[in-house]
Amino acid sequence: MTETTAGPTPGRLGAAGAAVAVAAMVTNGLAYLLPMVGARHLAAEELSVLATVLALVAIAGVAGVGLQMAVAVHRARQPGAPTVRVTLVTAAVAAGAVVVATPLMVTALRLSLTIVALVAATTFAVVLAGRWLGELQGEQRFLRLAWAMGVFAVGRYTGMIVTLVLGADVVDTLVAGLVTAYLVLPVLALIARPASNLDGAPVSAGTALRIRQVTSAGTAALAMLVVSYADLIFARQLLSPADSGAYSVGTVLTKGALWAPQVITVLALPRLAVGDSRLRTTMLAIVGACGAVLVAASALAGDLAFRLAGGEDYASLGEYAPFFAATGALYALVFAVVNAKIAAGARWPSAPLWVAAGVLAVLTMAVAPRTFQGIMWCALGTAAVTALVMVLGLSLRGTSRRASSTDPAERHSPSTEAVS
Question: What is the pTM of this model?
Answer without folding.
Answer: 0.74
